[in-house]
Amino acid sequence: MPNKTIYVSDDDLKLFQRAQELVGGNLSGAIVTALRRFIELEEGRQQGYDEVVLKVGKDGLRQVRFSGQLLAEWHQVANERIEDIRVYRTRKGAFALHSHFSYWSEFPTDTNLLKDWRQWRRFLGIGEQNWGDFDLEVFESVTELEGKIPDRLYAKVLDATEHPNVEDLDI
What we know:
alpha+beta
């Protein structure tokens, strides 16, 4: 097995020692794992993908993470609920549909709108809501999204898949 020597500055020595403690003494394994993750994220970033962290479940108490690119989003405040829908293309070519529905009937009543002015943003449906149902579905093709999202959002997603985000012009 080939050997590689890594020189570590005195300032970084504690970092390497802590990593070795966390992996039970196999520092080489920790370095390889970290390098794999770094390469995966950096190659994805160079291809236009970002690390995406999304809330899922009731009130968004859990999170999921993947490498993806936001294609289109939808935000609508209606009489019954607030709708936030985002469609991502994953690095592996799938389409991730993240939906968040906040029903007014479930609006948290544990805060006093008159005393806390910041709650007005929540009440008016401005910004990311922290109550409601958060869901993530993954589809193999863009055509599977048809009928599952509003028609106008589907048109945006189709356009985003057929055209590059940035077109370089030689003019």
